[in-house]
Amino acid sequence: DSFDILGDGVKELLVGRDDGMIEIYNFESADDPVLRHDYALSESIASIQGGCVGKDGYDEILAATYSGWLTGLTTEPVHREGGSGEELKLSQEMQSKISSLRNELEHLQMKVLQEREKYQQSSQSSTAVSSVPAFSVNDKFTLNKDDASYSLILEVQTSIDNVLVQSDVPIDLLDVDKNSAVVSFSSCDSE
């Protein structure tokens, strides 16, 4: 998307990448765009848009991720400084917002508990049928020309517990910054 997120009168280029990076490019000169800000998410970005969503006067970037999460980045200051010796007082609007969010969180926690109980009861029933849910998998296997390696990217709309890679030829697994996986190797029986 293109949007004036920096408020300088010139639209910036907002880029959402498959690797989860959000980047803001500024066109300071007529030559090449300059990276001004970036932010990393844990999953690929399906859509990105700039605009004013949450509070008047503060522009935001909204990004939709592969699994359906909406993430917002705002220009509203997060921290406010008080004068020396002053106590930080929350505005009535902020207090009601916090109270509303707490109530919503409690409601969601109660709903999760009720659904868990329903599931437990239905799974104990003699007529219960178990099935494996079908998930769409977003997968990519691409060649990185810089270091002659392949990147395997797997995304599912639920957590991934294990990924098994089996190969008939020896392979080296390289660690990357965004990888939180624990790698274990085991030799395969040639037969």
Automatic annotation (TrEMBL):
Domain of life: Eukaryota
Coiled-coil boundaries: 91-118
Domain BBS7 GAE, residue spans: 133-190
Keyword annotations of the record: Coiled coil
InterPro entries: BBS7_GAE_dom, Beta-prop_BBS7
Domain BBS7 beta-propeller: 1-75
Leader peptide range in chain numbering: none
GO process terms (BP): cilium assembly; intracellular protein localization
GO cellular component, one term: BBSome
Protein name: BBS7 protein
Organism: Menura novaehollandiae (superb lyrebird)
Gene name of the record: Bbs7
